[in-house]
Design goal:
By secondary structure, this protein is an alpha+beta fold. It has 7 helices and 8 strands; from the N terminus they run E-E-H-E-H-E-H-E-H-E-E-E-H-H-H. Helices cover about 30% and strands about 25% of the residues. An 8-stranded antiparallel sheet has the order 4-2-1-3-5-6-7-8, sandwiched between helices.
Length: about 220
């Protein structure tokens, strides 16, 4: 038994197909390793979870959706991403050490589609990262320097200060599933709340949202 990560990867060149694997290291590093001349676009980590026995969890996950496997000797499955995430969450056992609990779900494509003209250039991934006590928004930015060099900056913002409808209630509750918190951020967290709490949008978007009474509640009559 060994601790590590079980991940779900997606690739825009393979719509409807996901890859489910495991690694002892960073899942995104593993995704970069899979880039080859045979695949024109990069793999992306749609979801990952830390498991105390990641080999057993991967095996259970593969067995659960084995009938959807593309090839018997490959880790690719023609299976809906959302259902795969829910299945992996269901199969994951709570860790014996609560402090080691970790899962991350990418919301980059949903955010990009919804706020395409407002998103800051350079952002390559946006994830909800969750432990048993914390929920973070994680933004990854890349800056190309020269022909071969790429600097990457990953920033996590604790969402504990975002309050719910009840005084003192966390809007993004670590007691909820990470998928529920991801859906709340994409679907319910409005543009004004986003500019007040995150660095997702560029300056012109900030000005536009701040001056629009339809989005800024403080500008309404």
């Amino acid at each position: 038994m060994s601790a590590g990560y079980v991940y779900i990867l997606i690739n825009s060149s393979m719509p409807g197909v996901i890859k489910i694997g495991r690694t002892l290291r960073d899942s995104r590093a593993r995704a970069r390793e899979l880039q080859s001349t045979g695949v024109p676009t990069a793999f992306e980590v749609a979801y990952e979870v830390f498991a105390e026995d990641h080999e057993a969890l991967e095996e259970k996950m593969h067995g659960e959706i084995s009938e959807f496997r593309v090839s018997a000797n490959r880790e690719f499955f023609r299976y809906p991403l959302r259902m795969a995430i829910e299945c992996l969450q269901r199969l994951s056992s709570p860790p014996k050490d609560p402090s080691s609990a970790f899962s991350a779900e990418s919301i980059f494509h949903e955010i990009s589609k919804k706020y395409e003209s407002w998103l800051r250039p350079g952002i390559v991934d946006v994830r909800i990262v969750q432990t048993q006590s914390r929920v973070w928004l994680e933004i990854t930015e890349e800056e190309h320097k020269g022909e071969y060099l790429v600097d990457q900056v990953i920033k996590r913002s604790d969402l504990a200060f975002c309050s719910g409808s009840i005084d003192g209630e966390r809007y993004f509750n670590p007691g909820d599933s990470i998928s529920n918190n991801a859906r709340k951020f994409v679907g319910n967290w409005d543009p004004y709340s986003i500019i007040m709490t995150t660095d997702l949008f560029h300056h012109d978007a900030f000005v536009e949202i701040d001056n629009d009474p339809r989005m800024n509640p403080h500008k309404r009559n």
